[in-house]
């Protein structure tokens, strides 16, 4: 089987913010539907704080949670890892066994920063606003990444802002 693609999935404001007070600083129903479509049936990797902000394992996905703390999350749908490297190994094993060719890294800020050098693809929802927040996403370096798909998404009934969904592939 070919190598498993490592994809970062993130929504980021114009000023680089992805979170505030352990939550997202916007309401984007349209983007949540896209997130579900992108990640369903795949292994998702997230940090402990992101897991706690969601509050439960994401259904229909193998959930791998990274925590340096000894206390594990005791849930049958959660696998624990001590590092991003360990989490990727676990997620890739799960993907190979289930015939998937992609794993998704879904946050938060510290995990994204570590994963950016390891990722093959970025699925970025650019939220067309600047917001206050305490968690940010690293700058996407155009010498390393090229946009291969762009979709303009006007704000729907349950969306705070319009967005632009962009897929970046490593050059």
TrEMBL record:
EC number(s) given by UniProt: 1.5.1.3
InterPro entries attached to this UniProt entry: DHFR, DHFR-like_dom_sf, DHFR_dom
GO-annotated biological processes: dihydrofolate metabolic process; folic acid metabolic process; one-carbon metabolic process; tetrahydrofolate biosynthetic process
PROSITE patterns: DHFR_2 (PS51330)
Domain DHFR intervals: 5-170
Gene Ontology cellular component terms for the protein in this record: cytosol
Domain of life: Bacteria
Entry-linked SUPFAM superfamilies: Dihydrofolate reductase-like (SSF53597)
Catalysed reaction, written as an equation: (6S)-5,6,7,8-tetrahydrofolate + NADP(+) = 7,8-dihydrofolate + NADPH + H(+)
Pathway entry: Cofactor biosynthesis; tetrahydrofolate biosynthesis; 5,6,7,8-tetrahydrofolate from 7,8-dihydrofolate: step 1/1
Top EC class for this record: oxidoreductase
Keywords from the UniProt entry: Kinase, NADP, One-carbon metabolism, Oxidoreductase, Transferase
Function according to Swiss-Prot or TrEMBL: Key enzyme in folate metabolism. Catalyzes an essential reaction for de novo glycine and purine synthesis, and for DNA precursor synthesis.
Family designation: Belongs to the dihydrofolate reductase family.
Name the UniProt record assigns to this protein: Dihydrofolate reductase
Species for this entry: Rhizobium altiplani
